[in-house]
């Protein structure tokens, strides 16, 4: 019974911690490491006490305990280039949810976060760029959680920013339409409006904004537009690209009236 409970717990934690790409998903995966350490400890104990041969096997396997940090670094570095590792991660549909905000391969393949400062660097850039009382549409798969729940709610940093949170896995067309209506009102009232990306799920909101501004267009037609055509044909508003980190290709957009630039 204990074994069954352990397996169910392990599977549950793995599914929960890998359900979609999110910048703090590493915190959700920590229980997986804890649960996996239990059979490893029992295995070590068994090898060390069963016989002399077991102790020899254990000593032969001991160097492998020191290999993972080097393997993690190598995989993380290799994943920054086009190749097998990057292509593997790009097959996940959630890849788009984090693109141009944080680098999925580097974050997920290397559990050593001791020197990882990308979250604080991104947040500081956002705070430097966004003017007073800005409205930011952002998804939980990008940077909504760190900016809203950590820096704003806990550290009270840039509490003037109005965060419009989009829950990537479950956002519906009705919710996207509601957010599009809010965005339209903000822009028409000359409020500074920013959006974290033009990809999913932010694209769902922009699709709804498109047909809100041009009711003659069909939603399916708008959704089928390539991103370049979508940007060029967007009615009344345009997207001003604001680069945060040029080398890493990380940026956000400001949504402005076409006659205001």
Count of DSSP E strands? 5
Any idea what the radius of gyration is?
A: 23 Å
**Category by helix and strand content:** alpha/beta
Question: How would a textbook summarize the main sheet?
Answer: 5 strands, mixed
Name the strands of the widest sheet in spatial order. 2-1-3-5-4
Order of helices and strands: HHHHHHHHEHEHEHHHEE
Q: Can you characterise this structure?
A:
There is one protein chain. Helix 1 (2-17) packs antiparallel against helix 2 (25-50) and helix 2 (25-50) packs antiparallel against helix 3 (52-61). This protein has a five-stranded mixed β-sheet with strand order 2-1-3-5-4, sandwiched between helices. The chain folds into two domains: 2-109, no CATH class; 118-260, Alpha-Beta Complex (Protein-Tyrosine Phosphatase, Chain A). It has 261 residues and is an alpha/beta fold. It has 13 helices and five strands.
Outline the secondary-structure elements.
Elements (H helix, E strand, L loop, with lengths): L1 H16 L7 H26 L1 H10 L6 H11 L5 H7 L4 H4 L5 H6 L8 H12 L5 E5 L4 H9 L9 E5 L6 H16 L4 E3 L6 H12 L5 H5 L3 H7 L3 E9 L4 E8 L4
Parallel strand pairs: 1-2, 1-3
Antiparallel strand pairs: 3-5, 4-5
Short description:
With 261 residues, the chain is of the alpha/beta class.
Looking at this protein, list some descriptive labels.
single chain, 261 residues, alpha/beta, Protein-Tyrosine Phosphatase, Chain A, 2 domains, five-stranded mixed sheet, 13 helices
